[in-house]
Structure formats: C-alpha cells, structure tokens
Amino acid sequence: MDVAVYTHPDMLAHSAGEGHPERPARLQAVLGALEDGAARIEVREAPQVAREDLLRVHPQTYIDAIAGAEPARGLVQLDPDTAMSPGSLVAAERACGAAATRLPGDMAVSGSSWTRPRAGSAPAMASM
What we know:
Elements: E1 3-7, H1 24-33, E2 41-45, H2 51-55, H3 60-69, E3 76-79, E4 82-84, H4 88-100, E5 110-113
Parallel strand pairs: 1-2, 1-5
Antiparallel strand pairs: 3-4
C-alpha cells in the first residue's frame, strides 16, 4: 500500500444542492473508480473528529454556530458557496476527523482524505 484513503459512508449524507461539486455522486464516482485495484490504496474509516481537535482551529462559538445551523430538511446557505443539508454535520465531523488523523509511519507512505464536505481549509471563523 502506498496511500491510505480516509472516507466514510456518512459523507454521502452531505449534499450542497443539485449540480454543486459537493454532492454524493461525485464522491461515489471517485471511490468507485478506485475499486479496480490499479491504485495501491488502503481505504480506512474516517473517524468522527474529537472536540479537542476542532478547538485547536476553531473557537467554541463557531463550532456551536455550525452545529446549530444544520437544517432538518432542505438547504441552509452558510455563505455564497457553502450549504448545509440534513447530514452535513456528521459528514463534516468525519471529514475533520480524517484530516486530524495521524498516520503511523510504518503503515503508509502518504495519506489522503477523500471527503465531502472538504475539511481543513476553512479559516477559523468562516465556512468554505
């Protein structure tokens, strides 16, 4: 194995709307393309993020605001490019957990988190 890929079925619960790049079909297509075995990967379960890991990069007030924004149905726009759907919060928690996971040096040359929504690139007080 050359690359560990972190993902989870919970990530398929996030949908930013029809035609948006952050949609379940896109993640399914990428993961499906890897099933042929040509790539030397090991798919690993993305864990839910630990609260202390989130607090390293975001203040508690921001974490609470995002957690409280998830709709029971439909979409909520957090900014012009970021929408939440039912299931987005757990998907984001898995994406952040994947980003926070440390790879043991003897288990993988490199690792990747293939997630929707993406994790690890948002400023401390802004969505991406």
